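Narrative summary of target 7.
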Amino acid sequence: MPHRRIICRIWPILLLLLAAAAPEPQQFDAIDVGPPLSNAPGELFLPNGAGPFPAMVVLHGCDGVGPHYRTWAHRLAGWGYVALLVDSFRPRGVITVCNHGLLIPPDLQAADGFAAAAYLRGRTDVQPDRIGVVGFSHGGWAVLKAVLAAPRPSPGFAAAVALYPGCEWPDAPLVTDTLILIGDADDWTPAARCQRWRDAVRTGGHTVAIKIYPGALHGFDTAATPHDYAGHHVGGDPVAAADAIEQTRRFLAERLLPTN
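Modeled conformation, tokenized:
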């Protein structure tokens, strides 16, 4: 028992040391990007046709890249976007950060997203001024870091969607039209914090919208039945999921798809 208490005390310190040891964002090139299911640092999902297309960067949740995020990337490709699913964990030797979010801080995951966008801008099949970002849970937290004015690379994203993100106090003005989708029964990333984020952020003329789904849990857009995970009650809500998919489709189309 004394050993267990010592480990519990040391573990948070180790997490912070590991996070500090990996401060650099990933860089993406042809070697780092592979097709769907390749487990490459970036998995590329392509729409049908020759392009050039708008594009989306996809940032996963605290459980790392898995089927749910690949389903979203496939969906985005079906809507006409080049989708790049970024793995912020395995290239750093990490599998999960659930309940230990600072192991891979959201700012670092956001920096990975910017690096992925820079890679996409260099592709001939991508419209460089029409790149958005979508993130889930920990990745949604990263999205809300990426849409603020500083520090961030330029150019930024043209549109952003965050599903059940962690919401901290915004410390810079908004530079990207942003949509937040979250459930009011979320006991992991409470909706009230995201409402405060929306009300506090300086919009600078950009759109910031939030939709809160009654009774929906964290991970409401997944296929999982409600269950306990990492000390929280999580799981899918088909009605909320269907609406969130449609809200995302319309929000992105209005900002990224050609108008003619």
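Confidence is low (pLDDT under 50) at residues 10-22.
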